[in-house]
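Form 12-C: Joint structure prediction
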Amino acid sequence: MTVRNVRSDTWPRPVDFAPPPTGADLERWATADRDARPQRLARLRARMEEAGVDGYFGVRREHMRYLTGFTLAETEIPSAGNSGMFLVTPDDVRVLADNRYTIQARREASHARLFDCYNNLGERWPILLAESGVRRVAVEAGFVAHAMWQNLAAAAPGIELVPVEGWVEADRQVKEPTEIERIAAACAVADRALASLLPSIRAGVTERELALDLEWRMRTGGAEALAFDVTCLAGAEAALPHGSPGDRPVRSGAVLLFDFGAQVAGYRSDMTRTLFVGEPTSRDLAVYETVATAQTAAFDALRAGLIAARHAAPLPDGRSIDGVARASIESDGRWPAYQHGLGHGIGLATHELPSLGRSAAATPLPSPTVFSIEPGIYLEGETGVRIEDLAVFDAAAGTLELVTRFPRDVVVVGS
Amino acid sequence: MTVRNVRSDTWPRPVDFAPPPTGADLERWATADRDARPQRLARLRARMEEAGVDGYFGVRREHMRYLTGFTLAETEIPSAGNSGMFLVTPDDVRVLADNRYTIQARREASHARLFDCYNNLGERWPILLAESGVRRVAVEAGFVAHAMWQNLAAAAPGIELVPVEGWVEADRQVKEPTEIERIAAACAVADRALASLLPSIRAGVTERELALDLEWRMRTGGAEALAFDVTCLAGAEAALPHGSPGDRPVRSGAVLLFDFGAQVAGYRSDMTRTLFVGEPTSRDLAVYETVATAQTAAFDALRAGLIAARHAAPLPDGRSIDGVARASIESDGRWPAYQHGLGHGIGLATHELPSLGRSAAATPLPSPTVFSIEPGIYLEGETGVRIEDLAVFDAAAGTLELVTRFPRDVVVVGS
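Section 2 - Result
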């Protein structure tokens, strides 16, 4: 494919993208969450019944919010103690909170009953279980620390702890309409922020300055938080798939990679754009086109899968789609393909199911779902290019819709 | 005690506080870390020898940085997989990294040997141990998930996993000189940011706007990151010890509480100031004085303990100091004392050892160390006051020095 070459007179502009969410949007989404919670709990309770447990003890922050409404930021987790942990039983939801969080928990998890616990879960655990009549409890083994597991086992020796992983994760990958709306809103915040940043990019400005500037544009443009720290990498640094911005100045004649995302009403976006500062080198342009071609190949394979599914074929799996994009780069043969995965689901977490990668499950993709498609080519010490878009994959509608709207053109800045 | 009443003509000014760290400071601190790492590892190895283990497997982000140099933000942890986890043996340090992090790990953990691992630790674990000749390995049981523990146990059944907690935490509470310097530098960034914010505070501005403004002043004033999300709570909201800023406007005649901190070269600050918007009510002023008096009582008790220690008494313990501040509020008798702890250590983590609270260990405080002293009074539905300063407690020097320099006066804003 040949990507369009875009200069300042045809740059994407902030007004090209959806405006920030309004107060009415935020209220509507909060209501939708409250209305959806009984169904979310019903799915979990069906799993509980099937596994023969009468309780589900959860600690993962995304699950707290999804099932109970209680909301903690990642940065709050280390000091929250047991607050936010929760127990679901066939007819009740208990949310643990110490006095620092009582008022918040009452507001956010209004349908749940609070259970007072101040970092003394070992002591309070038998009381919690006895109050709820629980005898056999599923525990999020991928997130409960081993030491806590041992404490719980010792505190109530008559209770069976059943390690479970992936139950709520599996449910969360299928998105409700207002979850998709919020991811799209987060994408628009990010799209708009990058569009508004373009005129500020010039040789000499540092990666760190641009990262902070882009962050500020998101935080004042509708994002309640970042999805993750902004990546801004100039020239050869772009070869680090998870590099951090430094005091390196942007140089003319080199690429400039931004990987960033916003959070809107709990839901996240994630996008990568590799821009060109000044005149692109023919090598960088060729790398860019190779990556864009691989991404298009993945889009095409997903759309072909949706068409086949209308004729009763199973939906494609994430491993095969990764294979398509990877093969596109490998068949070109000039540069090695990315070593990471092609993409990941996104929602309350930046990285969640489904996974599109070499080690992903070879099972059909869920639907409707949202995931990233982000092939890259990394030439250590030379250059790096990644292009990342979020797409809504919807088998019922038969559509793959990009919710990242910032164009994939070659965007030339700083000249 | 009577606190001074400060209006706009005598407000603290940004120039009252130390300037942001320079590039030379950052380099000096990086060098100091590299130089200190052999001693840090030696302390850990002494613990290993005492416990009869020939390996220490760590996963906690603060320990990665402290012992190896590899640095992950809290928000990066969920997507880092096994990268950054590390194994210390009597004569080696291995840092796990997948290809996304290889270059970063080589730069940051330059003395460690990398071990390639892409979310397949179960598979790679026996190889890691065999390469290092490890037979009995201490594992950070408070941070390794139970499911991962089970995987490791199953992957190498001949290897004994020894659950350990608190080893590195205990070492980290005693601070090196340049760790204290960095905490003080982070305090100055926060002090200066609040001083520069004062003229912007007026009735009608929302908590969220002020929180973002204060964050921006820290992020552009020398902070590489925040220590945690800024808390800004107006009036009755200040009664929530861990509340989040909302769209509530600041009101005249009410308090305005800021709890915030900066991060400088990995090290954090944490401070709380409760300001008065417009004319303070006599109730709010009396609450403020009661809290300030309790804080002073804690300072005095700590200083008395340092003097007694010169005459061979043991250093005071965190539980008794909490008791002194709590008793000060309780003996006043008008309002209930804070339910949280009086204070916590701080460094690479916002909350770390030592703990000053009712459930803290009744063992002498470490030295030199840095901790917060943050009594509060919370009247639900009415008002809340907390005052939080960081102090360096140094038995060898015989000093308790406040590194939060923003005055504790009654600061009146917005009028």
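Section 3 - Comments
Chain A has two domains: 5-16+175-413, 52-172. The CA atoms of residues 374 and 388 of chain A lie 4 Å apart.
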